Amino acid sequence: MNILFVLTSHDSLGNTGEKTGFWIEEFAAPYYTFADAGNDITLASPMGGQPPIDPKSALEDFQTDATHRFDADSELQNKLAKTLRLTEISADDYDAIFYPGGHGPMWDLTTDADSIRLIEAFARQEKPVSAVCHAPSVLLNAKDEQGQPLFDGKQVTGFSNTEEAAVGLTDVVPFLLEDELKKRGGLYSQGPDWMPYCVQDGMLITGQNPASSTAVAEAVLTLLKD
């Protein structure tokens, strides 16, 4: 199977002067889950090339077996430095799409026309669409064939308001993901803060936080096997 990973190209955390990007755990854990199951993975981003890594995700407190594996994986690091541009990508060539989180996607992928085009195409073709943590924000402007929000009336999750408050960024992010998912018709639910929580509704799979990354990937694998 061919799986498309879409990563953010945005590296500024609002007006704080701090950097953001994608969260390493949310990339590494799903990547290795898919790769170890024998799937081919393509990496893409709006601008192509090296997507920015959120520097906080490299701190010791957030390291896992998957991030340690990534740190030692020069082949994957080289691949990550050469992501394709989204303009080059067609949904026809892939069996599933996955979006790692981090705060970056809230600023660029939420409104990126090529990302929205891909999500809508995967949905039309009844292929898995998956995202974790802040990345369900990429769904906010995607529409179904009737012009309604893609997740309207569907079970969905994402980084919760309480988790955003816990990291002190409620007033920094462009919107609160939980609120926006609810506002646009999503049947939002959440588990305990920082614990794995994954929701599946048909071909749509979302995870709440970094700890949910592997569960989202495993749910996609199950769909692909079926």
Main attributes of the structure:
alpha/beta; two-stranded parallel sheet
Walk me through the structure.
The structure is a single chain. The chain is α/β, with parallel strands linked by helices and 226 residues long. The chain has one domain (2-225): Rossmann fold (3-Layer(aba) Sandwich). The chain has helices at residues 24-36, 65-71, 74-80, 104-107, 113-124, 161-166, 177-183, 213-225, and strands at 2-6, 40-45, 84-85, 96-99, 129-132, 155-156, 187-188, 198-201, 204-207. β1 (2-6), α1 and β2 form a beta-alpha-beta unit. The longest helix has 13 residues, at 24-36. The radius of gyration is 16 Å and the shape is globular. The mean pLDDT is 97.
